[in-house]
Amino acid sequence: MVSITRSDDSAALEHILTVVLNEPYPVDPSAPMLPFRACFKKAGVSNASDLISMDPTDYAVLLFGLDPLGDEDHQLNSIQVKKLNSLFSWFRQHPSATVPTWLTLDHDTFQVWRTQAPTSTSGITPSTTTSAIYDFRKSVKRSVSDYQAFKEDRLWHSWHRHLLTTARSHNVDNVLDLNYSPTTPEDTALLAEQQQFVFSVLEQKVLTSDGVVFVRIHSKTGDATKVYAKLVERYSKSTAAQLSASEIEEDLSTFRLDDTWKQTNLMFLNTWATKILDLDLVLIQNTNDSQKKIWFTRALAPKLMLSMSISQFEASEKLTSLAFGPSKYTKAPFSTLFDHVKDDAIRLDQTERYQQTAIRRAHETLTKIKEGKPPLRPRPPGTPSDSLAEMGRSIHISLHLKISRR
Length: 406
Prior knowledge:
By secondary structure, the chain is mainly α. The protein is 62% helix and 0% strand.
């Protein structure tokens, strides 16, 4: 693949305007612009790739101004639109047309082409290759901004999953398939077109020190597949990712809801879930439900009420499985258990707040009695009980209702 720079692309557009369409470069910026130049400027076209990315009919409806200070009240006339149709059909007749292909077209050749070839877009019967590339360009709206930046070695696995998923949705996943080999000229031309987009993604989004070097090495060829292969080879067994995973796994294995935890039960569960998400970012495969359950059960073991919540959930699952039969009952995913315990943690937090309030009030009452002051007024009827037994009953009722719904 020939190296294509932005200056080459811009030079190709200037060649089209000056040589092919016979609109010389303006010497005086304040002078009225020529139609094609004004139209392309309005469309935001700055190079030949921009030009060919739009359909001639798109240019036909644009309103533009010829005078820099005048109104935008001009449109391309029918002949000018037909010229664009002819220009596009000439370019797309080449099986592997690239930016340098434009430089082979001069005014005389174009005049011969447009007087012999059909100039109506509807009248052109493009080659299979041209049709495939055209369909690719028009099928899905693609943007480099849809891709996340790869900034840290340890986050390779997470970024890699995102890259593959997004590339698949953009229909450029063949570029990232190291075993893919085009078998027809159509496939080869289409792959070259897809390579340009993916290389642009890698150039702008791969920001790690090694990744930048890989992109730089292949910048002349623009071969995104080779850059991707280097990234896979370098980061699939990244030492940084392995060390980070080991550190988080060790943290999870010792993380406990014991007396050292000074915040709410709900905050503990959210912190635990965040650690799992952090771990999944640096693993090739996400943590399975069985391992999550082991860590989760250990983490909550010091908290009697939440540990009981897990046990009751498991017991209810077994009873439900026996009722429906093992073949008809699908075991609940870990997320269901987590949500169940989370609901109970919210109730427990409320109960503990009531308990703390009661203890504080009792302490204040005792203090006032010792000081010879009248005690605080008793709590009005209907104040929620701080009994942990009531909390246990509410957990059991909630669990029974959830299993029944399922």
